[in-house]
Amino acid sequence: MAQIGKVAVIGAGVMGAGIAAQVANAGIPVVLLDIVPQSAGNRNQLAEDAIAKMLKSQPAAFMSKKAAKLVTSGNLEDHLDLLGECDWIIEAVIERLDIKRDLYRKIDAHRKPGSMVSSNTSTIPLARLTEGQSKGFAAEFCITHFFNPPRYMRLLELVTGERNRPEQIAALTTFIDVMLGKSVVPCKDSPGFIANRLGTLWIKAALTQAFELGIEVEEADAIIGKPFGIPKTGVFGLVDLVGLDLMGHVESSMSALLPKTDAFHQIHRDLPLTAKMVAEGYTGRKGKGGFYRLNRTQGGKVKEAIDLAIGQYRAQKRPSLALLRGDLKAILSAGDKYGQYAWRVMGVTLAYAASLLGQAADDIAAIDEAMRLGYNWKYGPFELIDQLGAAWVAARLAESGIEVPAFLALAGERPLYRVREGGREYLGTDGAYHAMVRPEGVLMLEDIKRTGKPVIRNGSAALWDIGDGVACFEFTSKMNALDPDILALLGKSVEVVKERFKALVIYNEGQNFSAGANLGLASFAANIAAWDMIEQIVSGGQQAYLGLKYAPFPVVAAPSGLALGGGCEILLHVDAVQAHAESYIGLVECGVGLVPAWGGCKEMLHRWSDNPKFAKGPMAPVGKVFEMLSTATVSKSAHEAQALLFLRPGDRITMNRYRLLADAKARALELVPGYQPPEPPQFNLPGPSARVALEGAVDGFRRRGVATPHDVVVSKALALVLSGGDTDPLNTRSEQDVMALERREFLRLCRHPDTLARVAHILETGKPLRN
Prior knowledge:
Layout: E1 7-10, H1 14-25, E2 30-34, H2 45-56, H3 65-68, E3 71-75, E4 88-91, H4 97-110, E5 116-119, H5 126-129, H6 135-139, E6 141-146, E7 155-159, H7 166-179, E8 183-186, H8 195-213, H9 217-223, H10 236-242, H11 244-257, H12 263-267, H13 272-279, E9 292-295, E10 302-307, E11 312-315, H14 328-333, H15 337-355, H16 364-374, H17 381-388, H18 390-399, H19 406-411, E12 417-420, E13 423-427, E14 433-435, H20 445-451, E15 456-457, E16 461-465, E17 470-475, H21 484-500, E18 503-506, H22 519-527, H23 531-549, E19 555-557, E20 561-564, H24 566-573, E21 576-580, E22 583-586, H25 600-610, H26 619-630, H27 638-643, E23 652-654, H28 660-671, E24 682-683, H29 688-703, H30 709-723, E25 733-734, H31 735-750, H32 753-765
Parallel strand pairs: 1-2, 1-4, 2-3, 4-5, 5-6, 7-8, 17-18, 18-19, 19-21, 20-22, 21-23
Antiparallel strand pairs: 6-7, 9-10, 10-11, 12-13, 13-14, 15-16, 16-17, 24-25
């Protein structure tokens, strides 16, 4: 199979359109086709409408507006010839076997030799899809099951057949991995594959047992949520998100496809309340509400949950359950109805996972990966079994009258995963341990940490040797919040790297790179009037970041997730950034009543002043940076961050999260030969006249009700910094001059009671205060 240079997606529904968008996000041209609507005023209407919806969707389907231009709309009557230009054709039409088979014959007549065809089906086995198709088509056909939304869900289940050529499947797998950013999990050709097969049983067990035991929806989500590493939506919240109607279709499909001996049939039963809710339009978040809803009647916003016993909404409750204070064994062993609920749901789920070995997947690692990435579980089912002990789970299953899967009996007292000679191994169905091998081009810090010790460390950060003369600086504080310990170790690390390494990468494997400075520490210092401590933190941060910028070796940052405030400022001070595509970057200090003070203002001024596409003169870049920072603008992707200049045009983007560290390390090594630190910038800032103009704009926003009183205070402080203070426009300002202004205004705002109120509010609620 040649390199994939163009893709076609057939079916412009939610999934098909989302897949097309993700292909375009990878920079690959894509054709999106659908049927001609009955009222054919515009024969491409369905595909064009899908693109328009994706441009407005939240969360965004496209990573940039530029990506949307790579999608070409068309229809299945006029544009089938376009398939001849495509290297991969993805079918994402309705789950009806007759429609799919008819479509495949049309595809086969127009596709070019050697092109790959795949279905995004979530339930129909590959063998049934290829029945009646040509041998050539069957040899180049597989199932590529994306998860919704395709941009954000990292799992892709791959089902292949005996006729597929290994080299063609390998090329497709590499494309999906590297270009689309998915973790490809091979599956058996069985109904529901892995994630939906297990996930559907888990959801159904949770729903039915809640009805039978009289568990309220909030209680169920609290029990089958955080304690098991499952997202806070729990199970009822998840059904609301997916849609009660769609879950009904999935259940019906699984019920029809699975053999009568399957455990799914033992727990499946009709739930009259859910059928009634769907019939009345209560399908979840997309409908009038679901198990939860936001009641906006009488001018308010009241969070409500449905009472499963009577089918009526009531005010949502915050459950307080004593068993949640115990560990997993304690929760599953509790004798009350809540413990029974936890065991009846998770016990059958863990048993079912073990029974799927050989049916849905070859090994436990594949099933765990599918549930982690397909359902956002923190731990896969076998990782949960390991926490409990396979023998303990087997004994509980036997006590409960549930058949003990052969694999759990085989495991006995042994762990399902183990570390040997620094490498992680899993227990196979043959009773032997097998090495877990990363794909080529994947480097994980967790593997390095398993085999070695940090070069230096403290309570908030660590420096690791990742090989080839490259060191990696890792944040280890709670939520990767930046604190004085991190800043201190950053300074020490610069000295260590100078002596022992060639380059430095700043990276971690947390959910977020860093959401910024430790506001709790700043709030505490302000409440006890420890202004010297705050000034030391600000000065320490400025000096640490300058140390990175002017270090005698290249520094590369590799963010993923949130990189806000001080986290963003790190990115602004390094030589290069290798960003995960899903990086959300911004300077958000104004939202908490402060201004960026670790060099963020001066670096953004420098970038926008040097931007050749931007208007000349000192006022234009000042106005642009003021607009972005005063509104706490955050990029919705790494691509958008480049447009905002939080990333430079030359900074690079990695689509697959697993490949980020290896890519960052390679980038750092590229910069080593002949490396020279940058020259300090000089600033031509417009001075008081510009400050007055910016303040006038802010006053206008206040009169229109857009800006709050404290927004005005903060924005005026920001305007002073960006305009250069009381400087004469003819005089240049140094980097140190601008940082001194940042520091002064930050410290002044720290003392303002409205800023302290904002900080306290966001620490308490996680939401900004508009005061």
